[in-house]
């Protein structure tokens, strides 16, 4: 028979260790910070070693606490997944997917009817937020993240690579003056996606690479969401630098065109990420498989 410390004490430790805060752990567990402190003291007495220490930086884990956290986090993930498997037998199922707002609106949502047709017994909840979802608090089952694929303590699988392309409404190609070469951008409005940071070039960088340094690359309206910059381009308000995956539907529908054959690769890609324990959930496996089926071979994993 396994001899374990009290479950509430382990829960309090896992939450406090993840947040490095008794107060935030208390909020998550719907108890008081004093109650969390008592549970931590009980656990430390039970295991016979300190798990936290306070220093000028705030609350920190001891070596023993840091060593225990990954296993406990995985253990609670598996408990949650196992409980869900019991409660969802024969009933409606739901998968919660976290994604950035622009990716959700421009790529994911337009495709969701295909998943619903293939899996009518699974409801999809899309959690669109720029903040990284906290899997440990149960906010999501899996996430689609844009980055280098370096996500500690999570299973990761490449969904698709990305590249940056200039896009504009077709009418701008025939405008006054027409848009035929990068130097012609001096006479058109540049739309800036400030939601991008290190994941792609700014207009100034792109113009320099295109040999059009004479074009002022800092002028023009700015947007904090990629989707807004793309919608402004669709409306004929100017030329945007867009992630191809986000502009793809508008390009296929001829609402946008790529005026120059100049694409810029990026080190960032789209990744499917989730805790290892979530892989046991049939709805997560189904959604993950469907996501991968939506990507063309040249975009997806090698």
From TrEMBL:
Keyword terms, alphabetized: DNA-binding, Transcription, Transcription regulation
Coiled coil: none
Pfam families: HTH_1, LysR_substrate
Matches recorded under InterPro entries: LysR-type_TF_proteobact-type, LysR_HTH_N, LysR_subst-bd, WH-like_DNA-bd_sf, WH_DNA-bd_sf
Example GO BP: DNA-templated transcription
Statement: the UniProt record of this protein carries the keyword Transcription: yes
Gene Ontology MF: a single term: sequence-specific DNA binding
Residue span, HTH lysR-type domain: 5-62
Stored PANTHER family: GLYCINE CLEAVAGE SYSTEM TRANSCRIPTIONAL ACTIVATOR, HTH-TYPE TRANSCRIPTIONAL REGULATOR
Family, as annotated: Belongs to the LysR transcriptional regulatory family.
Protein name per Swiss-Prot or TrEMBL: LysR family glycine cleavage system transcriptional activator
Organism the protein comes from: Parvularcula dongshanensis
